[in-house]
Structure formats: structure tokens, C-alpha cells
Amino acid sequence: MKIIAEKNHGKVFDQYGENIVLWPPVVPSIREYEKVVFENCHEK
Questions:
Q1: Are 17 and 8 within 8 A, CB to CB?
Q2: Which terminal CB of the chain, N or C, has fewer other CB atoms within 10 Å?
Q3: How far apart are CA 36 and CA 30, in angstroms?
């Protein structure tokens, strides 16, 4: 989602033309989520 208001607390990425870049402050949380979700996905 892009920033849609000054106090938007749900920002996850920036968009530069056609390029999408993860917002640096949330990268560690996203990587941890990926690790938990995708490691558990392979255990089934």
C-alpha cells in the first residue's frame, strides 16, 4: 500500500514508477514474517 495520508500507519512500500521498494523500517518485520510462514509451510 502506498501512503495515502500524512498519518498513515500502514505503509509497507514505496513506489517509484513501476518499481516497488519495501519501506526500510518494516523490512525486518516482513523478513521475520516470511521466515515463520514459509518455514511452517514446508513442515506439512
A1: no
A2: C
A3: 10
